[in-house]
Amino acid sequence: MPKLTEEYEELRKTVEAFARDVVAPVIGDLYEREQFPYDIVRQMGAMGLFGLPIPEEYGGMGGDYFALCLALEELARVDSSVSITVEAAVSLGAMPIYRFGTPEQRAEWLPRLTSGEMLGAFGLTEPGGGSDVPGGMRTTAVLDGDEWVINGTKAFITNSGTDITGVIGVAAITGERPGGKKEISTILVPSGTPGLTVSKKYSKVGWNCSDTRELSFDGCRVPAGNLLGGRGRGYAQFLQTLDEGRVAIAALSTGLAQGCVDESLRYVRERRAFGHPIGHYQAIQFKIADMEVRTHTARLAYYHAAEKMLAGESFKKEAAIAKLVAGDAAMDNARDATQIFGGYGFMNEYPVGRFYRDAKILEIGEGTSEVQRMLIAREMGLSGL
Asked: Domain Acyl-CoA dehydrogenase/oxidase C-terminal, which positions (predicted)?
């Protein structure tokens, strides 16, 4: 395992302590009631977690994307709802504005996004789209004078309907390219804009403390200056955003996998059967050993992808590998941890019950496992055979 620098290790320990001392005592009750953790978000904002990879001139911490990944891993060791709230707010909300925004857009939005005072969201997925994002896109934006008029629907959008949601980047068809392909652009839509309707929260299997909703746009008008990046650059922007986001989701998945190991190690020392702690038995030992192997491998994978990203090298394949390996590790570890806990693993009062419910989406969100395999094969030159 690569040794973390003193600065990275200090950040990791700080977030670890916060997750243990602040998140863990209250998250089970919030999860059961499906309540968004506003107080936790406020405290994470005060810590600077929402601004980790953003320069100080915009209110950020001046760190990098790997620092964000370390924080996401430590949060997910305790709860993935909290971790995905940060991941989506930073990777999908703030980072596109930082990467592609004008100086005016950065000045307007980033200070509030990096402080956690406001959350950002990214409206990409549509009800009939799934993995075929451009093919399934139906949302349109037409320039009418000095305003964009947006019509369409977005599905499964994280952070889109909280009391502190401030801006949503919306991918929309803004024209047609030569050859008939869709011209896709990203447009910033402030919360509360007339014509934007935010649905009630989805009833979800997991991530019950995170905010996920459907959005509808009916003649929704925003200024022409709300175009993010160049017209027709939305698809390229979203591909870059997802490559980075996959490294972040891999970190979150690694955290969940590690949380399964942590909880299982505690439990097998306390739970006794047939005269011994159950950790005495080789069947349990082997199961936990396999869980540790998966977690270690997942961490190495996302560390490597982050290293290439920060070095400015191509990391598309490594991001896909990390997302695939870590998502599998989270799902497999959650299943094994639940088995180790037996009947108690099926109870929501125990963290592994939450872990099991939260793990499955990690094989789906920000690119399914099948899409990751497709990307890896493509990067290996196999798609044109």
From this structure: 232-380
